[in-house]
Amino acid sequence: MSRKLLLVSTSTTHGTGYLEHCEEEIKNLFEGISTVLFIPFARPGGISHTAYTEKAKEAFARIGIGLKGINEFKDPVAAVQQAEGMFIGGGNTFLLLKQLYTQQLIKPIQERVAKGMPYMGTSAGTNVAGRSIGTTNDMPIVFPKTFDALQLVPFNLNPHYQDPEPNSTHMGETRQTRIQEFHVHNTQPVIGLREGSMLQIRGDKMQLLGPHSTRVFLQGQKPQEFKHTDDINFLLDAV
């Protein structure tokens, strides 16, 4: 498989601007590409597709790459089929997936990625790259036809993963607890991506990038920590 993916936990880290913390990785992913197709359907904070696209354009302009929103095309399917590269931004994962199904973009995206079109996701855009969106942190403000996502990788993701605070008086469930609840009913691995972390995938090779280790959850097992130097390619063989 010739897939080229960059799955980023978040678009903005503390003290940085939009996409600043992953500029080098973006350059590497889209090397030789003049214009990236942006999908703004997740609409963070409810902003318009136009406003979201302009924000992404400004960030990509800093690194010398053009960007056009899918909302600027009359035929979204044709836009995907002709795209050199794709970026799906963050926001609400349920809204994003619903729109991908409504506009019949699931299969076209899968086909283009399988043929080597570079794909980047942040937050919700990373969630939909997995098997399902069952491990998103977002509220179900709308209802997609199914939780099945793009399935560009055979596992689920939990962007913005937060570790339990040992001195916290909060009595609600932790992210770890929620993922363990998920595994009562689902078998696929879940990768918890801490802020600033990202996965770079080239074919059948995957590498963790960014400042933190990642937490991997396998059904029926204790959570495991993996560093940048650890081999996590086994997750690409999950069934």
Automatic annotation (TrEMBL):
GO terms for cellular component: cytoplasm. It is an enzyme of class 3 (hydrolase). It is found in: Cytoplasm. Its EC number is 3.4.13.21. One of its GO terms (biological process) is proteolysis. GO terms for molecular function: dipeptidase activity; serine-type peptidase activity. Keywords: Cytoplasm, Dipeptidase, Hydrolase, Protease, Serine protease. It catalyses: Dipeptidase E catalyzes the hydrolysis of dipeptides Asp-|-Xaa. It does not act on peptides with N-terminal Glu, Asn or Gln, nor does it cleave isoaspartyl peptides. It comes from the Bacteria. Belongs to the peptidase S51 family. This is dipeptidase E. It comes from Pontibacter qinzhouensis. The gene is pepE.
